[in-house]
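Re: the request from the purification team.
They wanted to know what the chain is likely to look like in 3D before they choose a buffer screen. I agreed to run a prediction and write the result into the notebook, where they can find it.
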Amino acid sequence: MGELKLKRFHVISILIALLVYLRNQQLRPTERIRQICQDLLGQAISEATILEATEQAHQQLEPFETAVAEQLQQSPRAHADESGLRVEAKLHWLHSCSTAELTHYFIHPRRRLEAMLAGGILGKFRGRLIHDFWKAYFQLDCLHGLCNPHLIRELRGVAELDSQTWAVEMEKALLDMYLFSQTRIQPPSEEELAPWLERYQEIIQQGWEANPLSPAHSPPKRGRVKKSKAQNLLERMQKHRDEVLAFLWDPRVPFSNNQAEQDIRMIKVQQKISGAFRTLKGARQFRGIRSYLSTLRKQGHHIFLAIGSALAGRPFIPASALPSIGGTE
């Protein structure tokens, strides 16, 4: 290849990487990218060229996705969340599974268990999954941990709207437990846990005294007996005590699901800036490239250079440094 041709090849490669970066990292609409190229390069870029660059990058990411999926499956802890997005004028769901080092996104028409299994990770995950209280997660064969800031927001709502003093006490108890857990490296002993669990149960009992369940219908009526928000919250915190307090049993378990919330937030930004996806193919390409870019940023790699490497058929592959699940909980 002559020197002139080689320079031209490098320029084109850099341009393609720039198109991928602007579309998938900076979330610029295609029309805005065309304007940027016209202003900076004095050269019109077609929408088809931008979409082709994205497709070209996505096609090279299969080894990356395989590695990330395998590492997340074996992770001792992971975070999950989901958010709606519009694809072809219909509601779809973006599902995320992530850690502080890895990100995986998956798009499915549904929000339920079938969607989580179709993502290929959570069906094989056996660690502890941190999530908000969405019942479908509890159908997965793994350990669970609930997002406590989410519960605290609900407790505050109940306390403010219904003057529920037990909710105020429960918020304080959860925060005190969290501060205690932050002083630990190893899990606490049964003797150390006992007063915390007793305090938790006493507050639950106070809540039921303030919000007694109505007696069963006689004769029985069809359907469920309607419960108040306070009763639903009490029932959940009583039934899932071990999941609420997972951070107390093991200081390595996160108190919140903030990791997943941060990872899923970008889809809301994308839709605000660029609008809905016109095709399912485009949405899937976006989620694959965003999985790559998010993982790169978490691990401190140069985003633009890594896009170029992927386009050249050498995508970044995260090295596994995860301990086995056995003995982590």
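For the purification team: DSSP finds 14 helices and five strands in the chain.
Please add any questions underneath this entry.
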